[in-house]
Amino acid sequence: MDFQLNEEQQMVRQMARDFAEKELKPRAAETDERGHLPMEAIKKMAPLGLLGLPVPEEYGGPGIDSVSAAIVIEEIGRACGSTGLSIAAHNGLGLWPIVAFGTEAQKRRWIPRLMSGETLGALALTEPGAGSDLAGGVRTTAVKEGDSWIIKGSKAWITNASHAEVIVTLCRTDPQAGHRGMSMILVETSREGLVVHPKETKMGVRGSPTHAITYDDVRVPLENLLGEEGRGFHQTMMTLDGGRIGIGALSVGLAQAALEEAVRYAKERVAFGKPIAEHQAIRWMIADMATEIEAARILVYRAAWLKDQGEPFTKEAAMAKLFASEAAERAAFKAIQIHGSYGYSTEYPVERIYRDQRLMTIGEGTSEVQRMVISRRVLQEY
Ligand SMILES: Cc1cc2nc3c(=O)[nH]c(=O)nc-3n(C[C@H](O)[C@H](O)[C@H](O)COP(=O)(O)OP(=O)(O)OC[C@H]3O[C@@H](n4cnc5c(N)ncnc54)[C@H](O)[C@@H]3O)c2cc1C
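ok -> structure tokens follow
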């Protein structure tokens, strides 16, 4: 869809690519091996506006559109999957709900801090017993006591928790009211009773920290409610609609990286007297990868564009995330196949890309959940 990108979107791509090539790609293997985010490089994103993608200019943000924001995540993911996931979660999950639902005081307090690179945004929805079924499964409660909320429960798989000063937490504020009894609450990680547990050991995106959290009667002021009481589930669904564009974009970036590595290798490696790129079986794999990546990219940009038009985009974001994440899986598989044994070695990036992309069909709603979202709307439409 490059032919339709406007000048600003093209400039954003160039800027993000230059940055990611210089600051992230050379460190991607080390980021994965050591299991640490490249925080020095991430701090350098602050002056470029990459840590404030959803923030309008009046709050000091870059004021870019959602297609540009998707392009940024795509380019970061092309260079480093771990950083891509943490920056997508920071912007789309941690920061966006504050921009969208925050009071003026909450925005003035948290947006500049989150854009500074000193702390990363985080959103805590998932629990040990609740992932796909948040409405039925969330057990974390927030009870009013005087001028405070008392929060009790536990969350699981929370990206960036160890780098966060504040965690947007989905709680049950009225246990009798089903999904209408849920609310988002801003919980500072410095509060007594909040414990961020050691990071999970993962298959991929190892540099992106993922943590369990326990809230043991954590007391926060009533004004830490984010958005409306009882609207937390609805606000979560809105957040995930946008977040899925981010994961779709990250999937496109990872798939693009896999394609580029595969093409480079196919031109160099010789078998049966010619570069393997001359063999039809290899060419077909490259053709399929390139075609699916292009289709995925267009779906992602279209969902982002609809969001900016103020049009419904729930179905389109789910389609983009579903198709892009599954296309990334196929592209990474083929990239390893094209590399033969070398693709199975940690010496070549395709091994890391394969592990990194595997998350994309799971996080922010599994492929099965995306199909539920899409089919519900399609069945209503026809
Ligand atoms: C690296 C990583 C980072 C993450 N970051 C965050 C984060 O920052 N914040 C956060 O809140 N969460 C985060 N998560 C959690 C993630 O969003 C959930 O793991 C995901 O939503 C799936 O939930 P679950 O693991 O509980 O699976 P489950 O809901 O238990 O699902 C298990 C399987 O059953 C299937 N299934 C469930 N219900 C149905 C159904 N009705 N029909 C058909 N199939 C069904 C699922 O598709 C899946 O295949 C992260 C997870 C990982 C691994």
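The pocket of flavin-adenine dinucleotide is lined by residues 89, 93, 123-126, 131-132, 157-159, 202, 205, 210, 359, 362-366, 368-369 (CB under 6 Å).
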